[in-house]
Amino acid sequence: MKKKYFFILSFFLSVASFAQNNITIKGKILDKNSQNPIEAATVFLTSVKDSTVIDYTISDKNGFFKMDTKKITKPFFLKISYLGYETLKREMASISESKDFGVLSLIENPNTLNEVVIKNDAPPIRIKKDTLEFNASSFKVRPDANVETLLKQLPGVEIGTDGKITVNGKDVNQILVNGKPFFDKDGKIALQSLPSDIINKVQITDTKTKKEELSKEASTSNNASINLTIDEKKNKGFFGRFMGGYGTDDRYESSALMNYFKGKRKISVLASSNNINSTGFSMDEIFDNMGGGRNSSMSYNSNGGAFSVNGNRFGGGSGITRSNMVGINYADELIKDMETSGSYFFSNSNSDNLNRSKVITFLSTGNITKESEATTHGENFGHNLSFQVEYKIDSTATIFVGPKFMKSNSKFSNDSFEKSFNDSGQLVNDSKAQVFDDSDRGSFSNAINFNKRFKRIGRFLSASFDNDNSKEELSSLNKSNTIFYQGTNANIVRDQIRKNRNIVDKYVAEIEYSEPITDSLNVKVGMNYSNEFKSDDRNTFDFNAGSQSYSDLNPELTNYLTSSTKSFRPQAGFSLNKKKYDVSATVGPSISQFDNNSFYLGLPTTLSKNYVLPYANARVGYRFTKSKSIYLNYSYDVDFPNANQVLPVEDLSNPLSTVVGNVNLKPSSNQWGYFSFRNFDYATRSGYSIYIGGNLYGDQVVSSTLYDANIKSSTTFENVSGTYSGWFGANWNKSTKREAHSFKYGVGFSGNYGLSKGFVNGEMFEANTLRLNPRANFTYDYGELLSIAPTYNFTYNDSKYTNYRTTGASSVIHRFNIQTTNYWPKNWVFGNDFGYTYNSNIADGFKKDFYLWNTSLAYSFFDKKMTAKVKVYDLLNQNQSATRTISPTNIRDEENTVLKRYVMFSLTYKLNKFGMKEKPSGGNRMIFH
Predict the structure, then answer these.
(1) Among residues 69, 490, 707, 861, which is most buried (max CB within 10 A)?
(2) What share of the chain has pLDDT > 90, as a percent?
């Protein structure tokens, strides 16, 4: 208890005395020969005794640097590092008052390409031409923390409560380990399961396509990619983690991850089994795999139990999921200049859910209300295999092949009851249904890229071929009874089996040639050919009482649809790359043949049309400084409707809803635009970004629905123009450090807006929607003893309607969360994750707010190789999943089964052997962050 009072007292004393203990170090960095200022040079202070990083900053575009730091009473080095220059080093015995070092000159290093940087002499941050590189050992994390914990310490890196990662405002869509996927490119497994102390560098670049990567072109993406490089000393040996736990209500969890690294050869085996809605592979030292714990991207609570890795789906959606999974990842250089990597997953899951919903559908004549309850069970088995091979034919030519295979079987049952009311509250119809689905799905996709570079820089030839083939066979047993209480419609009773076969085959081939006109200007010509075929074959058989089998073909529920789109796109463009800016554009016609066929009720229908439509894409990027930039993008493209939207075939599978196509539909156009501005100052560890984007649609395909007196609907499709959607946002974050106190705070704002149109009972409606989402977060760390992290999110939704009896709807949602972690006394960890959610406009019968409090207490022993832990999920037993969704046509309130309170006891064993020697579990990291 005295220790905790000491924490509080030291915090206030530190803040009060900061101005007295703080000093300022500044200067100007120039090139010794040219006397030009050097922007983005890293200035850092290190201890002479052990090379510990004390503080650092970055020079601005004028070469100036300014560092506010504490007084230093022991010998230290002032170091200045910049790629291509020799590191400047000055030793000082101490510094107790502010100092201006004046002009500091750097000397070019003639052996830049062969430069060897000693690890302890490496700067915390290095800004290269297109790469931001962090030296992992310069940032403080606790021993045995995972990679996600390390990323949270890096300036400019933000990880949201939903697991979304941004770097200086850019979304991260790819995470690699030594340039290769670790199970999957989205990096979820790497972030959660790899220990941070094996990481040497964290490299951040703009995400490139495989063609841009092979041709060494500048990235045209607005996303970021993170590459984690393994420390050479840790790149040989074994490390892993084994965990098992059991709790109340028969809750259980278990997981294992074993890694063997040796140079370029990396083998990892992953396994998990649990019934707490988790993937199972987490190194979160506080909550492990607990659903809802730490609001991790790998944990789920009220959102249900579905998740996916590498395109492989685990879980069956909402409800409680029991999952089992085994995976292996392999990477190696099998022969010289041929690098390979691959992964395989087997998964099995079972999900149970009880769903309750209320839907109000807007009509000009009066709203419709539907209430339903459904009990569902799902079971899934899946196999997923993928690998990549990259072979350097010679120094100028490379070929890449990346196939993926997937095979799965799913079984699903649904027992439901639904009733509908008119605007006067009268019961109009109700329906009972039992559905049993059994589906087999297989798919194969592949990407082949070839690139040949020539002697002249910028001249290259690239070719690619992609295919995506899938087939699904579904057998569905449907028993339903629909009763109408108004009008003259006859009741509908069904007892039948539907057999569906869906096939999708897509092939895309592209070739491009680039010719440099100047050192910075390239012209490109190429062509793209795509062929996409889809078929939907449905046969329905009614139950025959005489034969006691499903043998009577139902012609009204049997049909065959095919759709084929062939497009040839010759294109030309240019790219201009300067030091400050880059511009690129591609234009061309898209020549398409659109064929659709159906066979229904003995009648064949063929619909074929040819189109010549425009295509365009352009982007502009401008860099004011190393850390300040703007980005603009524009594209114009056309989408074709689906076969069921254009063919005159009635879909009667739903007794309460009939759908038929419209042969007069036109292709819809989409103009997409985006603008962003980003500025992050590494000297002050603060930055902000703003962005805005939108879509303008022409001839958008929308539904047109008619309702009869029994609220039975008939839907077709129409084209409308003038619809749009948009999004916008801004964020700001800053990190500071005062003695043992570290602070990280940020605010953000996002929103979207749009205009939708459609037809109900022959009248066009319009819906204007707006969503606003301000948020704030704060993190306080006291050394390695205490961490406090509150967050707050506010969401405002507003919709306004025309030609509806309802003129509008709005709601507000408040979400507050605070996470605390106490690492005292030694070997003990006490964590709490408390959240509050309030929704103002949940319908009657659904709870508007709830609290979710998870807590955990852990003790490490046996040289910290073993950890015993007790965790309580939903301590207050209030977790719920009541949600409200407001759309242009309805308001939907829904509630699903969620995990409730349980207590879990677990035991974890960690193994770390590098260079065949056991790694000391309490290894030290640099003290700065």
Answers:
(1) 707
(2) 54
